Amino acid sequence: MSNVKNFGATGDGQTDDTAAIQHAIKDGDGLLEFPKGTYLITSPLEIPLKESGPRGISGSMGTATIVMAGPGPAFRLLGNHGGTGDPGSVKPGVWRSERMPTVREIVIEGSHAEADGFELKGTMQAIFDGVMIRHVRHGIHLVERNRNIQIVNCHIYHNRGVGIFMDGLNLHQINIANSHISYNRLGGIRIERSEIRNLQITGNDIEYNNTERSFPELPNEPTAEIWIDTTAEGASVNEVTIGSNTIQATSSKEGRNIRIMEKRDSSRPPGLITITGNIIGSQETNIHLSGCYGITLTGNSIYSCSHRNLLIEDSRLIVIGSNNFRRHTERAGMGVRLIDSRDCTISGCSFHDESLEGQENGASLLELKNCQRIAVNGCNFSDGVPYGIDALDCDGVLVTGCTIADTRETPRAEASIRFKGKGSGNLIASCSLRGDVSAEPTAGLSQK
User: Fold this and answer.
1) 447 within a domain of the structure (yes/no)
2) Is residue 166 domain-resident?
3) Which of 280, 292, 412, 419 is an S-S bond match for 439, by CB 3.0 to 4.6 Å?
4) 230-262 pLDDT, tens per residue?
């Protein structure tokens, strides 16, 4: 009695099957099984886990499609877990009746402007595996409180809102892996007004999540493939791994591949965040960090922007190591810019501008403005125009063991390094420079 057709659902794509499926939820045996077919619904299918016991939703190896023709989520999973991820905080009733609601191999499509895919509230150990969600607003919408979520092997594709939206959420432990999260107008993975711990984003294809590429007929809003915003009161995001993903886009107004924003005066800034081993490219700015603390950015290939590969503002303790910064096409730009930041390390990176004339925006390869205690070591800067490194009003910048050269047949760089404005304690040592060093007397620069 788990088959929804046994409760009156037709799966013909024309009949409203909402009541029949709700009947199966209420009186079925726990596994909501959809045989091959198209099931039209017009209001959310609510699954109160406390009342119904452990639940599974199966789409028969992807052959079943749910079409949501009304506002709200196609499925709303409602749990009562109020504890943490610690087993001791989970009440017996949650373990017995609510744990691990599982959705497998089903397709969700929206035919209403305010249709969503799934909404989860109060769940414990939910699993999405092999699910496709398209033409809705938000694909998977996580609100209020949830714990230990896994989203794997899914296609969250071409939606009007956010692919995976953590919205006013308290959540510890979520794994997003091996999924295709693309062409979502307001972002691929987006976090706002939330307290998140233990977020792993690994092995995904996350691309083209902006209005220009997905829904050009709709008004543009700034977005990102991965958007983490903790500027709201009480919000914080920590313990994050973004690794081994392909994160690409088309350049869009104020668009980013990865955007992390923190409230400037927050006592709980983001930290314990690692961005490593990704391919990241083709946006206005590839990675934008503002107000951040304690982020490690290593081993990435970061290419082609219309503004900067990496923009860091008002941040500290950022480690940037062994990344490849470059442009992918002649029309694109590249470069790294740090503003009002301190105690950062840039090491073992490659900066290369393939163009003959330099960038349209006139940016040097590495720009430092009003920064303190920035260590730049073991990096290779080639063909920067007007400079390889350009520092303004900086203190304690240490440039060591770097190679800076203009390799063009007719050099275009004005100098290898420029220090300008007011500064103190700046040092260049043990570098190989094919070009001059330009320094104003007030910049506080010495060379060894």
Assistant:
1) yes
2) no
3) 419
4) 999 889 999 999 999 999 999 999 999 999 998
